[in-house]
From TrEMBL:
<dbReference type="InterPro" id="IPR006638">
    <property type="entry name" value="Elp3/MiaA/NifB-like_rSAM"/>
</dbReference>
<dbReference type="Pfam" id="PF00919">
    <property type="entry name" value="UPF0004"/>
</dbReference>
<dbReference type="InterPro" id="IPR020612">
    <property type="entry name" value="Methylthiotransferase_CS"/>
</dbReference>
<keyword id="KW-0408">Iron</keyword>
<dbReference type="Pfam" id="PF04055">
    <property type="entry name" value="Radical_SAM"/>
</dbReference>
<keyword id="KW-0949">S-adenosyl-L-methionine</keyword>
<keyword id="KW-0479">Metal-binding</keyword>
<dbReference type="InterPro" id="IPR058240">
    <property type="entry name" value="rSAM_sf"/>
</dbReference>
<protein>
    <recommendedName>
        <fullName>tRNA-2-methylthio-N(6)-dimethylallyladenosine synthase</fullName>
        <ecNumber>2.8.4.3</ecNumber>
    </recommendedName>
</protein>
<dbReference type="InterPro" id="IPR038135">
    <property type="entry name" value="Methylthiotransferase_N_sf"/>
</dbReference>
<dbReference type="GO" id="GO:0005829">
    <property type="term" value="C:cytosol"/>
</dbReference>
<keyword id="KW-0004">4Fe-4S</keyword>
<dbReference type="GO" id="GO:0051539">
    <property type="term" value="F:4 iron, 4 sulfur cluster binding"/>
</dbReference>
<dbReference type="InterPro" id="IPR023404">
    <property type="entry name" value="rSAM_horseshoe"/>
</dbReference>
<dbReference type="InterPro" id="IPR007197">
    <property type="entry name" value="rSAM"/>
</dbReference>
<dbReference type="InterPro" id="IPR013848">
    <property type="entry name" value="Methylthiotransferase_N"/>
</dbReference>
<dbReference type="InterPro" id="IPR002792">
    <property type="entry name" value="TRAM_dom"/>
</dbReference>
Length: 418
């Protein structure tokens, strides 16, 4: 039997896509390879958000050439988020570059004549889930926002929402199989719209599905974050107390340059309303330092916003030009050293606020979904998405466990099973 190996770059959406890729391959007679050299097919699921990811793919291709010299039947495929200009540069290094929307056609390339795709919509493919307790469900794909630093609208296209019933059927099947955690995914989940069903209404529908599971979602955009959504998050018991809401910058001038159509005042108002309705919510954000033209004063506005909001977690990126975006036409006038300094300033603020927030959990009982075992310790997340470490047996992986918090750290908790 032929074997495959999938290399996934990027976000949870790409991880979800890889689960569908695996399903197509296994329906076509392939099985997972235990290691890269044994594979007959190597499929790279790309992320184009940052240039560094594309650079890493270029770095992989010499290895592919070496493997092909030993296995002349080896095929290589590139899919995922790939810009047209990148496809031209890298096309000779892969046997096939496949648009992710054309995933049902992959078996034709692999000459699996006994497999016929049922539809052209790759999101209808039943995925091969990576675990039997956590599942990622795309509810929409694409983006209409055109942030000046992002290529997603060019690689994923305009926003397209899945049929509500398709999503609910997937959730119902997972709930019946005992899944404990369901992520609803999209480049901008807040803009989900199918008929009369918007994202808050979809959340309600998913919450009403029978079963003992948590609901999480990502990614959200502040411009679409409504009071209706806040009310639903507060009232639906399965929706967990965790939110990632990217701010990107704490300066209105930089936000305008980024084509982020909200102000820091609007962002703070959303956070205030969320905390009023869900006091114990964990808040994370995304931020970029060193965006073209960012002055010290503008950076300090971001630092002040971090101090004021007191995030539990943040994904802080140092700006790097991404060819194909509007921001790439701006002069990248902030030095690498200065970007490093600004990154460290925000990281130091975050470390203090994260520890301050985590101290509130000391001595309290929390529910943790154990996800892995490492060196006799189990690691998992609380409803509030706090990483928690505790002693326990491997048979608890994939189950909810009650833990009493004994130690608090900036990036997580430690405790004991109650």
């Amino acid at each position: 039997m032929k074997k495959y190996w999938i290399i996934t770059f990027g976000c949870q959406m790409n991880r979800s896509d890889s689960e569908r890729i695996a399903a197509v391959l296994e329906d076509s007679g392939y099985q997972p390879s235990v290691n890269l050299p044994e594979a007959d097919l190597i499929l790279v699921n790309a992320c184009s958000v940052r240039q560094s990811a594309i650079d890493r793919i270029h770095g992989l291709t010499p290895k592919f050439k070496e493997l092909k010299a030993k296995n002349h039947k080896l095929k290589t495929v590139l899919t995922g988020c790939v810009l047209k200009k990148d496809k031209k540069k890298i096309s000779e290094k892969f046997d096939l570059i496949l648009d992710i929307n054309d995933l049902p056609e992959l078996p034709n390339f692999l000459q699996a004549s006994d497999y016929k795709p049922k539809n052209k919509n790759y999101l209808k493919i039943q995925p091969k889930y990576s675990t039997d307790f956590t599942a990622f469900i795309p509810i929409m794909t694409g983006c209409n926002n055109f942030c000046t630093f992002c290529v997603v609208p060019y690689t994923r296209g305009h926003e397209t929402s899945r049929k509500t019933q398709e999503i609910l059927c997937e959730v119902e099947n997972l709930a019946k199989r005992g899944y404990k955690e369901i992520w609803l995914l999209g480049q901008n989940v807040n803009s989900y719209k199918f008929g009369e069903i918007n994202f808050p209404k979809l959340l309600k529908e998913v919450n009403n599905v029978k079963g003992n599971f948590w609901i999480r979602f990502t990614s959200s955009h502040p411009k679409d974050f409504s009071e209706e959504l806040i009310d639903v998050m507060a009232s639906c018991k399965k929706v967990t107390e965790y939110l990632n809401l990217p701010v990107q910058s704490g300066d209105n001038g930089i936000l305008k340059k980024m084509n982020r159509p909200y102000t820091t005042k609007r962002y703070k108002k959303i956070i205030r309303k969320i905390r009023e309705r869900i006091p114990n919510i964990t808040l994370s954000t995304d931020a970029i330092v060193g965006f073209p033209g960012e002055t010290e004063r503008q950076f300090q506005n971001t630092a002040e916003l971090f101090k004021e909001i007191k995030f539990d977690m943040a994904y802080i990126a140092q700006y790097s030009p991404r060819a194909g975006t509007k921001a790439a036409n701006l002069k990248d006038n902030i030095s690498h050293q200065e970007k490093e300094r600004r990154w460290k300033v925000l990281s130091d603020i975050l470390k203090k606020t994260a520890l301050e927030k985590n101290k509130q959990w000391l001595g309290k009982a929390v529910e943790v979904l154990a996800s892995e075992q490492k060196n006799d310790f189990l690691i998992g997340k609380t409803r509030e998405f706090k990483t928690t470490k505790f002693k326990g047996s491997e048979n608890l992986v994939g189950n909810f466990v009650k833990i009493k918090v004994a130690v608090t750290l900036p990036w997580g908790l430690k405790g004991e099973i109650i």
